[in-house]
Each structure stands twice: as structure tokens, then as C-alpha cells.
Amino acid sequence: MTSKFIITGKVFNHDKFVRKSIIINNGKIVDIKDGTYSKSSYRIINLPEKFIICQGFVDAHVHCRDFQESHKETLKTCEEAAFAGGVVAIGDMPNTRPRINNLEVLLRRLELAKKLKIIYKVHVGVPEDLNEIEKMVKLGVKSIKIYPEDWVEYGHRHIMSLLKLARKYNLIIITHCEDLDMIMYSRYIHDFKFHNKIRCRQAEIVATLSMIKLALKYGFKLHITHTSIPDVIDCVNPVRRYIDITIDTTPHYVLLSQDECLDRVNVSGYCKVNPPLRDVKDRVKLLDYLTKGHVDFIVSDHAPHSVEEKCSEYSRCPSGFPGLETTLPLLLTLWKNQILSFRDVLKLYSINPSNFLNVNIDVSINNYAYLTIIDSEKDYVINPEEFKSKAKYSPFINFKVKGRVVATFVKGELVYVHTDYLDLFSTIM
Ligand SMILES: [Zn+2]
User: Fold this and answer.
1) In the chain, which residues fall in CATH 2.30.40.10?
2) From the CA of 24, how far away is ligand 1's center (Å)?
3) Per residue, what are the HEC states of the chain?
4) Residue 1: its pLDDT value, please?
5) Are the beta carbons of 359 and 390 closer than 8 angstroms?
6) What is the C-alpha to C-alpha distance for residues 99 and 102, in angstroms, rounded to an integer?
7) Portions of the chain given CATH number 3.20.20.140
8) Nearest CA-CA partner of 427 in 35, 18, 41
9) What is the signed CA dihedral for 45, 47, 51, 52, rounded to 10 degrees?
10) Is 344 an active-site residue?
11) Which of 66, 296, 301, 375 is catalytic?
12) What local confidence, expressed as pLDDT, does residue 3 receive?
């Protein structure tokens, strides 16, 4: 593959699309010119009008699994899924086996991740030994994920000590907000159709409010992940002026209710996710809040499991499904349907999460070229069989989307190209 090339196409610049040529040498952007441009000794990729060149996309919440769960996904297959979804940077979650919540496992994880081309960041779990935090920070850790179960496992006092240290080390506390006590005392029959009654919306509100109270008390940065109901935003917005707080949601909470999901899949387990999919009323209002700018960014919560595991009965069926290869097409569909602007899509799935993960992927001179190419006019139907992820199922199966990820570049290297578009890139392959 050649290291010197010029890619010309539509770029989103100051709220409009303009044709630009990005000149890349040895992985870096060395110049950007208006219109078409050529230079001797440089190969040329000249993209037709319907293609858009974007800065790469960023997914701050994925589960790459690996370790003892490599049958679900490995770092390698997770990376392949990310590239096929136009994603160039990921934030990996710590609930692996073993968990990434001590120095030894963290070092093993970072060593494994060195083989990746994607920008890899990891959120560590609640450390068993809080004295290890300082060394974790020196290794580049910027965030700690707290799961509902952690309150039971580590106890209130341990987590309070952690929250005080979070402020000291400027760590972001990422929380999955669901109150386990409320879930445990639920009287509903254990069945997929009651999943969102068992894990009720009140459990999410209660957990959100108690985390906000702690953030107000201790002053740490708080990030509430995978918000499934608009009520969480109603809790967060009034305190934004007092604390450093951000929230994300996923495409499934704004596009699918639990009933709609159960209607479209042949395996009920494919709809099981925590927090659960809610009612139509909730997803409509959450989408409305998203369009009004009340959500800081979008994550996929890519959470792969094997098909066999997802086919288990309710209590044994693990929660979550893959999302790296559906998130960008779904957001592009919201853009094409004029629900989001293109600027919103870039902000929600690239600019804001890149700030959150502290990665620099701007398309500007002297930066490495992290680019995603999109065919803005390609309509297709989501087919999980085509996923690069090991988890070849999705609640979005047969969902009609508008906009295809064509190719992904990492440090100027073409790391993914969809088979229908190989010809476009033949000059550099
Ligand atoms: Zn998750």
C-alpha cells in the first residue's frame, strides 16, 4: 500500500459540504486544498459527489470481551467490527473475565491491545485495592466504571473512598444507573416480556439521583452511560451548572421499544439489554431530547454474546447485543430522515466522545489521518450475518438504513473497505 496519496471528496466544513483534497504522506495529513488537487508521485482517490469524508467516529462504550470470553468477541474481532462501523477509537469496558480492576489485569489488557491499530482506551472497574489507582493513572487510565453490583460487592464505604480519590486524580466516574434493591424486590414473572417491568424505570431514576447527590457532595466528574429514559435527562439538566456531568444514550433506546423489538426478532433474548428497552412513549421523548441537544454523545454499548447464550431462557440469557456495525448507519438514517442534522451526527458520535476519551482525530494539517468515508445515498437492510463481530445477531435485523460505511482509514492506512467499493480505492491497494 502506498503511503503518499490524495483523497478528494465532500467534507463537512462550517455547517456545509465542500469539496476538498486531503493530502496524506506517511499517515499524516500534510495539506488540505479546496477542490480537486493533484501532485506528482501521489496516488489519487477521487470520490464521486455522493461520498462524504468525515473525521473517524468514536465509540466510548464497547465490550471487547477477549480473555476467558473470547468465544463472544476478541480485541481483534472487536476492532474489525469497529472499522466496519466507521469507528477509529473505542473505550473498552472492564467487566471482562477476569475483570480489569487491578494493575496486573490492566497491564495484561494494555499489552494485548498494543497489537491493535484502533485508538484503544480502557475504563477500569472499581479497584479492589485503592492504592493502585495512582499507578493506573500513570498508565493512562482516565475513568472508572461503577456497575450496580459493585455497591453490593465492594460495599458503600469502599466506593465512597473511591469517589473521593476520583476527584483527587481527576478521574471520570462512569455509572450504569440501576438500583439493584428495587430490581430484586420486583414481583413480576421472570420472562422476556416483563424485563422492563422487572428492571423498572424507577430503579434507573433512583440510582441516577443518588449518583448526582454524591457528585454534588464529592465534586468528581460524573458520566451517566446508556440512559434509557428521558427522566434521567430531567434529573441531569438542572445540575449541569453545579457539577461536571455528562450523559450518553444508544440508538436502541431512541429507536426501539421492548414490544417493537420482541415483534421483530425470532429469539426474544436478542432484545434483552440492561437497562431494558422501554415503552414507545419513552423512546419518542428520549429521541426528542437527543434532537434538542440534551444528550452529550451516543455510544453503541456493543455487548457481544454467542447466539447459544442469547437463546437461553430468560434468567440465564446474558444482557446486551452488538452495536458497533449498526450505530453509524442508524445515526445517518436519522440524518437522512431530517431528525438529526449532519452536524449532530458528527458531534454525537465523533467530536464529543473524542473529547471524552481525550483523543485527537481532527482532520487538520500535521494530524494523523483518521477518516471514515460514507456513501450518503446507499439504502440497505441490516443483515447481522454480514457483521465482522462474532455476535451475528441484532435487534435491528432487517431494519432499513440510509447511508453506508464505505471505508475507514487509521493513521492514513486503509483498514476497512466494503466489498462493493473496492474499485474506488484500487489506486492505493
Ligand atoms: Zn455496557
Assistant:
1) 4-53+367-428
2) 36
3) CCCEEEEEEEEEECCEEEEEEEEEECCEEEEEEECCCCCCCCEEEECCCCEEEEECEEEEEECCCECCECCCCCHHHHHHHHHHCCEEEEEECCCCCCCCCCHHHHHHHHHHHCCCCCEEEECEECCCCHHHHHHHHHCCCCEEEECHHHHHHHHHHHHHHHHHHHHHCCCEEEECCCCHHHHHCCCCCCCHHHHHHHCCHHHHHHHHHHHHHHHHHHCCEEEECCCCCHHHHHHHHHHCCCCCEEEEECHHHHHCCHHHHHHHCCCHHHHCCCCCCCCHHHHHHHHHHHHCCCCCEECCCECCCCHHHHCCCHHHCCCCCCCCCCHHHHHHHHHHCCCCCHHHHHHHHHHHHHHHHCCCCCCCCCCECCEEEEEEEEEEECCHHHCCCCCCCCCCCCCEEEEEEEEEEECCEEEEECHHHHHHHHHHC
4) 57
5) no
6) 8
7) 57-357
8) 41
9) 50
10) no
11) 301
12) 86
- Interval between CA 366 and ligand 1 midpoint (Å): 34
Cα-to-centroid distance, 307 and ligand 1 (Å): 18
User: In angstroms, what CA-CA distances link 127 with 76, 134, 156, 174?
Assistant: 26, 11, 14, 14
Cα separations in angstroms, 170 against 140, 165, 244: 12, 8, 11
Per-block mean pLDDT, blocks of 10 residues, the chain (429 long): 89 95 98 96 96 98 98 98 98 98 98 98 98 98 98 96 97 97 90 97 98 98 98 98 98 98 97 98 98 98 98 98 98 98 98 98 98 98 98 98 98 98 95
* Alpha carbons 224 and 329: distance in angstroms, whole number: 24
Of residues 352, 384, 350, 428, the one with CA closest to residue 52? 350
Q: Look-up: residue for cell 442508524?
A: 330
4-53+367-428 carries CATH number 2.30.40.10: yes
Q: Rounded CA gap, 246 and 353, in Å? A: 11
Pick the CATH number of 57-357 from 3.30.450.40, 3.90.226.10, 3.40.50.300, 3.20.20.140: 3.20.20.140
Question: How many whole angstroms from 6 Cα to the centroid of ligand 1?
Answer: 38
Q: Please tell me the distance between residue 361's alpha carbon and the centre of ligand 1 in angstroms.
A: 24
Rg of the chain (C-alpha set): 21
